[in-house]
Amino acid sequence: MRLLCFLFSIPFLIMADDGRRILVVSASSADYIYGAGATLAQYVEDGWRVDVALFANEEKMSQGLSPAQTRLVNMQEARAAAKQLGAADVILMDLKSGELGQVSATEMRAQLFALIRGVKPRILFIPDPYVHYQDDQDVVFTGNMAEEAWGYSGGGTFANELARMGLTPYGAPEVFYYSAYRPYRKNEGGETERAKFVHRNIAGKLEHKIHAAELLHQRNRAWLALRGRPADDASARQHARLFIEEMAAAIGAKYGLAQAEEFNHVAAAGSPAVAPAFTKRQETTQGNVLVITPSMRDALFAAGGTLARMAAEGRAVFVAVFGNEEKMSAGLGPAETRIANNQEGERAAKLLGVREVIQLGHKSGELGMLSSSELRNQVMALTRLYKPEILFFPDWYVHYQDDNDLYRTGRMAEESPYGGSSLFLQEMSYLGFPGAAARQYYFFVPFRPYRKGEGGEGPAVMKQSEIGDLLEKKVQAALELKTANEAWAAELSARSGRKLAAEALVRAFLTEMAETVGAAHGMKFAEEFNHLRPVTGIPAHVREKARRSN
């Protein structure tokens, strides 16, 4: 993300002066300039702040450079071009160019939700996904996603983690759809029911647009080379100028002007209210704990006693539940099941001393159908908000794991420390949530003891937590999960051929598991984890020997 310099200017980024802010969404550094560059330059002159979100990393548009070199040069030129138009900032989402169709649309949409809710733009500029014969699929995917983000960002149904970060629902009241490289055909593009064609006279800002496009040297030369034409700097600049002049003239001729740009435009009736400024939530508690789990039941059965002890020590414990728990009931519909399990999970967490439960709401049993990086981004965002010292998550290294939700959740959670670097979630850094990562990691197994030498990342060592004084609190919390417990008892009753009472089953199971784990380590009742923390000064082979011995 390379945004350290932004951190010194965060107060300016999150203040919405008089509400005159514009957010531009573009697949590439060129699309928005060719489609709307002069109009944006005029807005800047009129006192508006313009920010640009680029979704593709531009690693493919060059001649003779490697992907990394291409990406670096094109991003540097993208910033220079945006500055020429007067844009305040460029936010790089950094997804692979030419492959946006391989990225989860909801993942991209969540990134844009964050920017829309944080920046609170009065106006959005987005690529028009409805134009005919669009051969650049990155433009189509970006436009579709951006339109959805515009529509959904004002509701409370999505992105619970953003709401926790202070990024509450907000929808931009006005949107301009732009067509990047050709005039609109009659009745083409835009949201069909509300969009209306509008045009802007750009005679006074045409040179600003041309100069911005000319600064995309590498991209312009590559464009010419792909068409078998001379690709020197002079030819590239001339091509950019002639192309933009011709398109501006063609659009202008439709409206009786010398040069123009045109858009499909949607605006709310009446004058929109000024958006309130975004204020980042401050989280000052030290030693926080963040638990990542597919269901409340998984975390409670595996680590309920340890979490209760940490809460009693004064640590703030937060639990992020990724599954919506709509499937674990006996006789209830999915919606009823979800509501009941979520409410019961909240009560169980409160009994343990958990400060807050974050329901992410993905479909239980189907987490393997979601983009791993989308899920990981949510953990990264919560880590940046809560700044936990300790992270709990399912151990996806255990043998014979038959719950794919546990596997998927654990795998992506272990990758989430990537968010401590500057390479991920640029939109979050831009909004004042810089990189953060936990210092200790607890891998947990919910429903059986560890086998010897099993689970955990290589350097992890087994750690036991004595819970004799907290076993009853753990059991009482687990008994709050009445809907899931009844379903579990019904399933085991059918398999065993005898009637099992849910409460007795839960109590007996948790007690036996705590006894079994404790007996292996000279304790009466215990929980165990693969534990990982930064270790210095101890050779890797010594750490590995210690792990195996446990």
Strand-helix topology:
Elements: H1 4-7, H2 10-13, E1 21-26, H3 31-45, E2 49-56, H4 67-85, E3 89-95, H5 105-119, E4 123-127, H6 137-152, H7 160-164, E5 174-178, E6 196-201, H8 206-214, H9 217-226, H10 233-254, E7 260-267, E8 289-293, H11 296-312, E9 317-323, H12 334-352, E10 356-362, H13 372-386, E11 390-394, H14 404-415, H15 426-430, E12 440-444, E13 461-466, H16 471-479, H17 482-496, H18 502-519, E14 526-532, H19 540-549
Question: What is the CATH fold-level name of the largest domain?
Answer: Rossmann fold
Q: Report low-confidence residues grouped into runs of 5 or more.
A: 1-16, 535-543, 545-550
- Report the portion of residues in β strands: 15-25%
Tally the helices: 19
- Strand order in space, largest sheet: 3-2-1-4-5-7-6
Query: For the record, what is the CATH homologous superfamily label of the largest domain?
Result: LmbE-like
Which whole number gives the mean pLDDT?
Answer: 88
Q: What's the story with the biggest beta sheet? A: 7 strands, mixed
DSSP helix fraction: 40-55%
Distance between the termini: 40 Å
Q: Which CATH-level-2 architecture of the largest domain?
A: 3-Layer(aba) Sandwich
Number of strands: 14
Secondary structure category: alpha/beta
Shape: elongated
Q: Give the number of domains.
A: 2
